[in-house]
Every structure is written in C-alpha cells, then in structure tokens.
Amino acid sequence: MTDAMRPAKHPVSAALAGPYGHPFHPILVTVPIGAWVASVVFDLASHVAGDDAAYLAHGAQWLIAIGVLGALAAATVGFLDLFTIPAGTPAFRTGLVHMTLNLAVTVAFALDFWWRAAGTDTGRAVPAGPLVLSIVALAVLGVSGYLGGKLAYRYGVRVADETTQATGFRR
Do the Cβ atoms of 78 and 109 come closer than 8 Å? Predict the structure, then answer.
C-alpha cells in the first residue's frame, strides 16, 4: 500500500465518520436511496390505483422528504470521508463527481417535494412533471452510486487495508 493511500483508509473523526474500516456513510445512504426508490414506486402505483391514488401520492411526497433529510445526513458524513482522500488523485476526482451528483439529486428531490406541495390537485395520481423529475433524479443517483462503489471497491476509500482484511481469513 502506498503512502498516498493510507490517509483514505482512516477517518477524519471516528466518532463522526465511523471507525477504521467501518465508515458510517454507506449505511446512511440506504435511507435516501430506499425512500426515493419507494417514492417512485408509490408514484407509479398512484397511476393504477384509480380513485384511491391520493394516499399513494401523499406517501410519495413524504418519502421524498425523508430521503432529502437522510441525504443531508449521509452527505455530511460523506464529506468527512472525502477529506481523507489525497487531493489531485483519481479517487479524489471520482469523489468530487460522486458528491456533486448526489447534491444535484438531493436538490432535485427537494424541488420535487416543493413542486408537489405547491400543487393543488392532491386527490389524483402524481402529475407527469414530478414523476419524470423523480425518475431522472433516481437515474442520476444510480450513476452516483456506481461511482461510490468505485470509491470503495476499486480505490478502497475508508476500507480496511488488505493486511487487516486478511485477519478474517486466517484459521
């Protein structure tokens, strides 16, 4: 392992970002991802529910809000993890793109929530505009998730080094 890789393995603050080899960011991202995927499922279901679509549209709106709040928590911890990556490296550039896409997705879903809250037709299926915005934002989130996986699984950011990992395979 090179010296440039060592800082990306250890947290800026173990109390805030998670201990060595066990970062908090990956577990926190499950909240916005799950909430936003569920919101799109509710959106689509609102189009097949007929007259009973209001509860699905309302549920989707609140799932979006939960996702935005969860994304802010995940972003805070992810930002701390970004500080561990040496600037100017491919891993750092990937981290910046990952962060930028995630912030754009969070803003898109926040606007989506506002758009829905400003709407007056709450007794029907989710309108096409907010539905398309949610689907596009979810697609961008998928690209960002791929980059997050690249940070962890290819570059090993905040993942324990191979010597530490090997302890799990000794008899």
Answer: no
